[in-house]
Amino acid sequence: MHATQHLNPSQQQGRIRKSVLLSLRYLVCGVIAFFVLIPIVTAIIGGFKSNAELASFPFSLPTTLPVRHHLSWPAFPSEAIR
């Protein structure tokens, strides 16, 4: 026998209510996380795009990955000042 079979109807309704509220909390947290992460992901992807690509298709993936531009930066910030 399961533990839920020994509960009276009010206890079963309480458990159902708690699980529904928990599901709603997860849904709200998921929606908030979506709206927080979209600008961050867009900024990261935009770092690999040219200005023309950013103006034309701001939410698409870059057509090429110009990694050489990012690798040409100095390893230490003090070298960039020189």
Based on CA atoms alone, the radius of gyration comes out at 25 Å
Quantity of strands, as a count: 0
Low-confidence stretches: none
Shape: elongated
Give a short account of the largest sheet: none
Q: How do the SSEs run, as a string of H and E?
A: HHHH
Mean pLDDT equals 81
Based on secondary structure, the structural category is mainly alpha
Distance between the termini: 76 Å
Q: Note the beta-strand portion.
A: under 5%
Q: What is the domain tally?
A: 1
Helix content: 55-70%
**Count of separate DSSP helical elements:** 4
Identify the notable features of this structure and list them briefly.
single chain; 82 residues; mainly alpha; 4 helices; 66% helix; elongated
Structure description:
- The chain is mainly α and 82 residues long.
- It has four helices and no strands.
- The chain has one domain.
